[in-house]
Amino acid sequence: MKKIFKLSALIVAMALGKASFAQLQDEQDVTMTMDLQPILQLQMEGPDQIDFTFDEINKYYTGVIKTGANILKVSASVSFDLWAVGLSSGSLLSGGLLWDNPVTYGNGVGVSTNSSNLIPLTALELHQFPANPVTTATCAASFTSINGDYSSQFAPYLFTGNTLGENKTNFAGSATNIVGNNAIYCTAATTPYAHPTSTVAPGTDSEKYIAGASTAVSGCQVNAGSYLFGTISTGGVIGNNDAVQTAGGYYFVMDYRILPGLPAKFPATVPANEGNSTAPSLVTANSNGGINAPVGNANTFAAPGVYTMFVKYVLCEDE
Length: 319
Hints:
Helices cover 10% and strands 20% of the residues. By secondary structure, it is an alpha+beta fold. The radius of gyration is 32 Å and the shape is elongated.
């Protein structure tokens, strides 16, 4: 009996020992969701109203420049394009291609039979620093910097006598025709959100971007990044290719100029005097009776008064 009892106790002990090593398992799952929101952030520093006052005769000749008037700062989580577009209420021309004229002096337009209040929006010129980064990247083969951005310096007021034509000479007597390339981009439609067209194809519209381009060619957009980060270079070469970021794509200093000339005809609005001569308003506004209308009086000049327009900066995900 003792042996049987001992054997039973041993079996029970072995059973209890195995039970102490039995696997017990319970599980709970947590689902992780990641929501990558696209971020396009455009900050503008500087005044939101800029006044140009022409109260001295030399200002008509030299123009008035507002240097560093605005600074644009971009942060984006997606590739993007950035451009500026000139707009008005369209009170003087359907489509808004002319400056609004809320105030006239004297008896208003008509004091002189040659005065006109139809001034194209392209009388406003822009200059940016630094240049559009994609014009020096792989996109350089798609369009040239002269019509790719506003980085060209403001052209001087060139003339022969009082003629504002193509064959102008400068003050030093040079016969070189130096044209302007800084007239602001304006859409023929009233929407500012139509992408400017960038191309070097002859006979086609080619307009300016501050950063980026309309073509789908790789390297013709600015990669995601921010003005908060400095320049990154690879092998000493700075560019926008292969996700290499440049501070030039996210931080821009903007200058503005208006050059009336004498008489006040705003030479930057004359298609022949503008290297980027296919902007809609350079042609359309003048064709509709603008200050430089081809069918207008050759002696027409801008009527004195107060004129207004506005500039919209558009930051858009690259398409």
